[in-house]
Amino acid sequence: MPNVANPIVVQGDRTILLEVDHPLYAEARDALAQFAELEKSPEHIHTYRLTPLSLWNAAAAGLAAASVIASLNDLSRYDLPPNVVADVRDYIGRYGRLKLLREGGDLVLRSDDIALIAEVARHKRTREYVLDQRDANTLTLDAARRGHVKQALVAIGYPAEDLAGYTDGEAMPLDVREQTAQGEAFALRQYQRDAVHAFYANGSTSGGSGVVVLPCGAGKTVVGIGAMAAIGRATLILSPNTIAVRQWISEILDKTSLTADQIGEYTGERKDIRPVTVTTYQMLTYRASEDGDFPHFGLMTGHDWGLIIYDEVHLLPAPIFRITAEIQARRRLGLTATLVREDGREADVFGLIGPKRFDVPWRELERQGWIATAECHEIRVALPDEDRLTYAVSEEREKYRMAAENQTKIAVTRELLNRHADDQILIIGQYLDQLKELAKLLDAPLLTGRTNNSQREKLYDQFRQGKIKRLVVSKVANFAIDLPDANVAIQVSGTFGSRQEEAQRLGRLLRPKSDGRPAHFYTIVTRDTRDQEFSSNRQLFLTEQGYRYTIDDAESLGLLRAANEPVRLRERESRSTRRAAGQA
After folding, report:
1. How far is CA 575 from the centre of its chain?
2. Helix or strand or coil: residue 259?
3. Residues 88-141: pLDDT tens digits?
4. Biggest alpha carbon distance in the chain?
5. Any idea where the domains of the chain sit in the sequence?
6. Over pLDDT 70: what percentage of the chain?
7. pLDDT, tens digit, 9 for 90 and up, residues 357-414
């Protein structure tokens, strides 16, 4: 029942305010994460919103409207607005009111709601896919446009439950090893088994498509392997880059009965197609010209796959959505640490890959010891006086770059390195000039998009072995890098407040440490600038996952002592002159 001592306030515009310092904060946060989206997370009050997509994902995961309303009632300080109660019932009730089925070789759409069927038959977004109306409750659809139908139904607010089934695909039985190829005992963890079960649903038509959300370091690759074993069919795996391709292949060889001749690498360097084939999004979306064809799309459509795995599904490029709309008869598993997409196409992930099938709060896995404990810190620094006027009159994009490349950040980075002298440290940033400067000053290797794959692998291997303890990396290190011993990350600049980037960068630290050490994630931010504004957006991700972060001033922490040392970092010519010369 509502109680003035409770932690949340539910408002008529479907926003929910959560008091951070309340004793029930953690309980409320975990409850809201199941059915609401986090919008803002400043120090004292966090703002969530109930959206159609958040409620449809909840419904797809088996959460009933009554359960959502009961949670809100139990945590709310005041009576729930009647319209919010009605909206929760309405939106959750919409999921599955329409069902896609296969009957006698035809794709049909069925509902007990006669008026809804009539609306779909005539709606401008859906009528082009309707072949005929069988009866008052059933439409026959163009089977080749199954994905397009699902996108259109999401757009008009009535997402269908897809029960039309899947083609089997070429048989490819495999066993998960009880002992890895390295001789270590191995079994799926309980939450990994639960994720596989939620996705596969014992082979029924209610499973077979959807997204599993797990933190970096929690074994999303193992969940993919578990799904492959459950289905036992030829599998295509799409991943972000060539390093990730090879990590997938290594993990499959290490943990399953498959042999090297059964696994193919399809990249710019090799073009092997095997019962399990691993490729990159970049490879599939390559074309010689902007209006040319995609010559490698045939890899998705021209082979008898029984399962397609989309690694880091939040990065899915737009052309892959297009081809995915046309292969809805294949089982599809999306793996990600966050459903947030910077392009706002979460609804397309829902419609074409499938709804969220399983997730676990990051902090819950931390409590169980499966991922490392992480301490998150934002350290604010001032913009130097000599740059303030230039900043004030610059364009918005240039303002962010000036703030992100603030020279004071280098002094703070040096002091943090002194305080973590015995740790394995990643220094992560966006801008190459800044990273080159840091690498030179710290006498540390620099890894960017221009670093070839063999050199990348060599540097990663040296870091894992402890031969190098500091590595300066650009955004190429955001994805699919297994650096289990990294326990400190210092983020000096990021991609315009990207929440998905924050997920990946924090994820670099979350592999459990052999000695139980906590991980430290530092973000250095220029105070009262666009840098700070974008940082506030990135903090949303940390809050979503249950992390509390400290916000401190560099001066108060004594982190600017290095700023007065006579180190000439680079020539102090004007930034505008350098950039005009094309050197930025």
Report:
1. 34
2. coil
3. 999 999 999 999 999 988 999 999 999 999 999 999 999 999 999 999 999 999
4. 83
5. 8-94, 99-162, 190-360, 369-580
6. 88
7. 998 877 778 788 887 777 888 899 999 999 989 999 999 889 988 998 999 999 999 9
**C-alpha count within 13 angstroms, C-beta hemisphere, residue 517:** 15
Q: Name which of 491, 482, 484 is nearest 522 in CA terms.
A: 491
Q: Has residue 538 got a pLDDT over 70?
A: no
The kind and range of the H/E element at 149 are: helix 146-155
Q: What is the pLDDT of residues 244-279, one digit of tens each?
A: 899 899 999 999 999 999 999 999 889 999 999 999
Could you count the other beta carbons within 10 Å of the beta carbon of residue 273?
Answer: 15
Closest CA to 75 of 36, 105, 104: 36
Identify which has the larger pLDDT, 289 or 133.
Answer: 133
**C-alpha angle with apex 204: 249 to 179, nearest 5 degrees?**
35
| Domain 369-580 CATH superfamily | P-loop containing nucleotide triphosphate hydrolases (3.40.50.300)
Q: How many CB atoms lie within 10 A of CB 566?
A: 4
Angle between helices 25-32 and 65-75 (to 10 degrees): 160
Return the closest-CA partner of residue 36 out of 12, 53, 19, 11: 53
Distances, alpha carbon 343 to alpha carbons 231, 248, 335, in Å: 32, 27, 18
Residue with tokens 């009933």: 64
pLDDT digits (tens, 9 = 90+) for 511-537: 655 666 778 889 899 999 988 877 776
Q: Given the structure tokens 């309405």, which residue do they identify?
A: 90
CA distance 567 to 369: 42
Amino acid at 383: L
The amino acid at 370: W
CB distance 227 to 307 below 8 Å: yes
Does 190-360 carry CATH code 3.40.50.300?
yes
Q: Which of 355, 376, 381 is closest to 366 using CA atoms?
A: 376
**CA-based nearest residue to 25, from 397, 369, 305, 363:** 363
The single-letter code of the amino acid at 280 is: T
- Helical segments of 469-574, H only: 499-507, 530-544
Query: Using an 8 Å Cβ cutoff, are 293 and 259 in contact?
Result: no
Q: What is the pLDDT of residue 563?
A: 45
Q: Do domains 190-360 and 369-580 have the same CATH topology?
A: yes
Res 565 pLDDT > 60 = no
Q: How far apart are CA 158 and CA 347, in angstroms?
A: 12
Q: How far apart are CA 258 and CA 264, in angstroms?
A: 11
pTM of the model: 0.80
- 372 neighbors 509 (Cβ within 8 angstroms): yes
Helix axes 385-392, 396-404, angle to 10 degrees: 160
Amino acid at residue number 135: D
| Token representation of residue 118 | 């009539």
